[in-house]
Amino acid sequence: MSSELSKSPPIATRIPGFTLRAATSEDVPLICQFIVELAEYEKLQHQVEVTERDLRETLFGSSPRAEVIIGHFEGQPAAFALFFYTYSTFLGRPGLYLEDLFVRPSQRRRGLGRILLSYLAKLAKERGCGRFEWSVLDWNEPAITFYRSLGAQPMDEWIVYRLTGEALDDVAGEF
Fold it and tell me: Which CATH number fits domain 4-173: 3.40.50.720, 3.40.630.30, 2.60.120.40, 3.90.190.20?
């Protein structure tokens, strides 16, 4: 990472006891656990296929595809955010896409999620990004309310499409 996050020790935040740091390959089991906990919260655990090997390769291998920030509160892992770059042809600039943000239930309502989002917005600006985007499940009212309180706007005119599994195989096989 090009910001102070990559430096040791972890950086302190305006919330006493809450620090942020870039994940390392040693954090792969913790990242996996955060993903499982997020999936349970979203009632999507049946979709989790990730393995520690997958994460080790895609996050810390020869060609990393995403980055992870770990938040600790009073020395205990409390939150994580996984993000990567997109690109806007209209802006002619990269964007930062937040794939996952999760704060453990016991640590919620302390402002930790806001700190993570604030840090990522700062990182996006430092890296020359013109956008900072993410998706939220339509039933997750607490998250939607929180995001709106930040000034984030839903992109109601856009519909996300996805190819996975057999459909992805079929379309790729047409080439």
Answer: 3.40.630.30
